[in-house]
Amino acid sequence: MARAPELMCPSADPGGIGASMFGLIVGTPDRPETAYLDTAQAVTPELLALAEPASPTEVFRFASRCIAKACGHFDHDREMCRFGEKTVRMAPVVVNQLPTCAIRASCRWWHQHAEAACLRCPQVVRTCFNANSPVRQAADPRVL
After folding, report:
1. Average pLDDT over residues 123-144
2. Which residues, other chains included, contact 41 with Cβ-Cβ below 8 Å and sequence gap of 6+?
């Protein structure tokens, strides 16, 4: 019997378990966008240094193993990520077709919401400067 893939958080910190970089943040501070890589890259000190003087999360998009119940976004009763769920509910669609994504097969948001998450995912950034962004609101664990 095949083992289910270990699910990855697509909005992770580079220090997370099994972290990889799967996208570059492009666009503007008010309208950031992820440019996806064909292959995820291992997080190394050399990779993180490439972001200087900015924070790595301002420059790169990271994934790491979903820590499930240890995360403030995780709904224990439903075994689901609320951040992904709120992103689908609150954020607009920003692409018309599924972007190429190196982590899709193991992405928690893809497993929960499939295409609906992927069509919104390019606007998700870990470090968001736009206070009115629907993604920033979705990322707040206090917002339901």
Report:
1. 79
2. 20, 21, 22, 47
Tell me the one-letter amino acid at 30.
D
Phi and psi torsions of 46, nearest 5°: -65, -40
Q: How many domains, the chain?
A: 1
User: What are residue 39's phi and psi, to 5 degrees?
Assistant: -135, 130
d(CA 120, CA 94): 6
More confident residue, 100 or 138: 100
**Reported pTM:** 0.90
Phi and psi for 77 in degrees, rounded to 5?
-65, -40
Residue 40 in any domain: the answer is yes
* Position 19 in a domain: yes
Quote the tokens at residue 23: 């996208």
Q: Are 82 and 9 in contact (CB under 8 A)?
A: no
Q: How far apart are CA 59 and CA 78, in angstroms?
A: 33
2 pLDDT exceeds 70?
Answer: no
Contact indicator for 21, 47 with CB cutoff of 8 Å: yes
Q: Are 37 and 31 in contact (CB under 8 A)?
A: no
